[in-house]
Amino acid sequence: MPSLTREEAGERGALLLVRSYCVDLDLTTGSDTFRSTTKIRFDARESGAETFLDIQPKELRSITLNGRELEAGELRDGRFPLTGLATENEVVVVADMSYSHECEGLHRYVDPADGETYVYSFVYVDNAPRVFACFDQPDLKAPYEFDLTVPETWQVLGNSEAVRTGPGRWKLTESPALATYLTALVAGPYASFRSEHHGTPLGLHCRASLADSLKTDVEEIFEITAQCLDAYTELFGVGHPFTKLDQVFVPEFSVLSLDHPGCVLLREQYLFSSAATDSERETRAVVLAHGISLLWLAGLVTNTWWNDLWLGQSLADYMAHRVTSEATRFPGPPTTFAARRKGQAYLPDQRPSTHPVSIEGPDVRTVQLELDRISYFKGHSALRQLAAHVGDDALRAGLRTYFDRHAYSAATFADFLAAMSEAAGTDLTDWADKWLHSANVNTLTPEFTVADGRITAAAVRQGAPDSHPVLRPHTMDVGLYYPDDSTTVRVRIDGERTELPELVGRPAPAFLLLNDGDLTYAKIGFDPGSLAALPDMLPRLSPLNRAMVWCALLLGVQDGTFPAASHLALVSGMVREETELSILAEVLEQARNDVADRFLAPEERPAAMARIAEALRGRLARTDARDERMITLFRGLVDFTSDTMELSGWLAGDGLPPGLVLDTDVSWRIRYRLAVLGGMDTADIAVALEAGPGAVAEQFATKCRAALPEAGAKEAAWKAIMHGSDLSNYELWSLAEGFWQPEQTALTEPYVERFFKDIPAAARKRGDLVLDLLLRFLYPRYAATPATLAAAKRMLAIDGLPVTLRRRAADHTHDLRRVVAARAAWAEQE
Hints:
Radius of gyration: 27 Å
Mean pLDDT: 97
Distance between the termini: 54 Å
CATH architecture of the domain at 208-426: Orthogonal Bundle
CATH topology of the domain at 208-426: Neutral Protease, domain 2
Structural class: alpha+beta
Low-confidence stretches: none
Shape: globular
Strand order of the largest sheet: 5-4-7-2-1-10-13-12
């Protein structure tokens, strides 16, 4: 199916003015399809011109243009030609559309807990034609009215007010002018809780079977919502731009949240049916703040073309972390960002597919592929650096100017940059070229000399890879740490080597930290003395700086400059004393999934895992039952232990830390680890699932079955992944996540070659978003051998591979090549 190009959209946008959409959906026609009837009123600026309509039906039943019946067979690859346009036009389309189970279009879900059915739309970025006929591009905004036929026990939600007009009939009143990708539809027997804030109606909604989980946190979520609305009103200089705000927690959601004016959708994993830490609640608050910010950043001001989607998402991520830390009870989002999300930008930014934060976007497919963690998290970091570069007052003034000029219209990045330059009193074009229009990451390394206990010369050397040789300006702090004191010095780095006269004459520090406070985006190096002092100095740093240092150390492991064994030795020490929940959780996850499972030599893994497990047992033994760190520590121990007797005992309630509840999450984590180690079988999984059914249990059970160290289990999972046609996105990902295990490399070795042979055909059956996440789990990431790299090379040489497969497989192969190289480098040093 062709991807809409920017040139095509420009021509259609210049020709058309869309007046309104009236969409009627009948969701009572069966479990596979629904009836979609769309009436679009639009003007053409040239009489007799032609254009095309976007629609992807299972069956196109009829289409009329200005009362003239058109031939349904004219539909080609999701486009229907409209010729002989009048200056004022009306097109009516009747079609049967397929429900989605991969979160593309109108997603349908049956709750295993009670058999109830739920439906919601996912039309971002270009999935609206899977629901209704439209001119699917962001600048052709129009008001919408929706009428829906649904079962009588259901309710309906959307961008505007929902009114029940009869038994099983609902109307969503006319919305403001919206881009197609911002329309929202939700239907089902949702449980609802309502409030208001400064006259704006607020709603929270979820599946009926999760109502108790939502009810427990209703007050907290409404409070965070109100705090965010007030904070953004103050920051942006304009109040909440829409008449209501519903937030709906939906099942099998492929992204964390999706902003629609009046109706934000959220992943229902943010409803906690099991014990949750304050760090997890903080993460939920950030996700809420992200979705709410986009009501301004994407709803109030819309992109002219999808290439500027990155701007709203980068701003939203930056603002969400900022507002959550400043306006809610959670002070830690900057630390969590440094510990988790920022590192998730560094990795793709060094891959073959790296790209600038600002996307070129010649077509929609390219935008979809490049709207990724670079867009979100490097973009966030660049905006944080912009605030340091121009000052926070200028940043706030620029945002207010931007909204004042472009509210309720479409704008471009050039419009945003103009507002920022005006507020800063300087032309930011060169800054934007280096930070937003160039790819990859710089390396910053300190150089200094000492005589008589004082710094006599100091500089920072900046590096860049040959493939992307851009040196950026960096405004940052340098931290000087002494046995009983510390200080920071603000510096500006530019060029290959920047002298730091501000440091000359100061006492030589025990530890020197570049980018203290995490103001810039760069890989930081350590001088030999600071690296040697790290085990003693790390606990003295602020949580934000500890998070940043851990990120730098992981980057060193990935670069082959810091040994995996040394990293895991530091983790053992960290376990004994780290107090910050987000750092504890993230470093443990990285130590297991990245360092121990991949970069560490396989023969060293069991002993390293055992040492960290023992450190976790020791910390747990002295952790109070009321300390929520106990949950994180115990989860870590479940991941690191290889003692099936210990795991089985916990599952039976024996030997658990005092006060720990064996809830759904904890018990299934234990079962998953047991499954990997061969400590349970399919019958055990079935018994557990029958005793406690539900969506979370179903997903864990699927993952457990795929993780069993049995040839039959692996073959069944493989066939389902590669050839199954009725799996939901979550079922597919659960199978893929459980399949490869470091403990099972001999068992799964035959599947390494099979992956590269089977995945091209399987990829053609999947949408881009589902395939992207599938490859993240299913690529044979533990088979770090030259043979795997050779098999990947053979597949990548095949002509006609799906674009997403080629791009992502090349990236994962690049990652694997780095693992092979790092292991080889450390082996030579031993």
